[in-house]
Amino acid sequence: MKKQFMKYLNDYENLEPSINIVPDSDFDYQLLDGNITFSQYKEEEISEVVEIIFSIFNSYEAEEFWDMADSISGDFEFVASTYNDYCTDITETGSIAIIDNFIFHSPIEELGEKLHLISVCLKALNNIFRILGIDRIVFMTKSIIMDLKIQDRRSLVNEVLKMGYIPIYQDKNDVVVAKNLNYL
Asked: How far is CA 44 from CA 6, 40, 41, 47, in A?
């Protein structure tokens, strides 16, 4: 896989993030909805490459975090429930970002290029969230790429694990991963 990445090393090194985060009025600023669009300049033209949609939960109680996630979607509720089960002895959660969707704005056919782009964007996302003071990122790998074959999904999971994410739940369909941003 590393050989495939080398092929795309310079393709996405100059992505520019555009951040949009708005409070969800139903939760008194405890829930923020956001997206980060990564764009690329080529020959004086700007093109959007990837958009990452997420929600940030500023809740310091595990039960409150689960309730807010449950009100958004079944996938968010599942991720929150999995995270709460993983952190059984922890009652305070801090701020947690759940990635909802990873949208490729232009089709990328080759898996190696897709994985490289995901890696570049997740590293940038980690840095952006760390600067914003977000404690943790949690997501299901299927929120990144839904239509992968099993072998390709393994490659995706391996790349995510190389970035310091840890698996907190796994079944035959998906893996839920988390990363604590308070540690490098």
From this structure: 25, 10, 6, 10
Residue appearing with tokens 């008194």? 28
CA gap 79, 73 in Å, rounded: 10
Angstrom distance (rounded) from CA 164 to CA 50 = 21
Domains of the chain listed by start with CATH number? 2-180 (3.40.630)
Task: Report pLDDT digits (tens) over 95-133.
Answer: 889 899 888 888 888 888 888 888 889 999 999 999 988
Helix (H) or strand (E) holding 20: strand 16-23
In this structure, are residues 68 and 44 in contact, taking their beta carbons and an 8 Å threshold? Answer: no
E strand or H helix at 97, and its extent? Answer: strand 95-104
For 66, how many CA atoms within 13 A lie in the half-sphere containing its CB?
A: 13
Radius of gyration from C-alpha coordinates of the chain: 16
The candidate with the shortest Cα–Cα distance to 178, out of 167, 87, 169, is: 167
Q: How far is the C-alpha of 127 from the C-alpha of 124, rounded, in Å?
A: 5
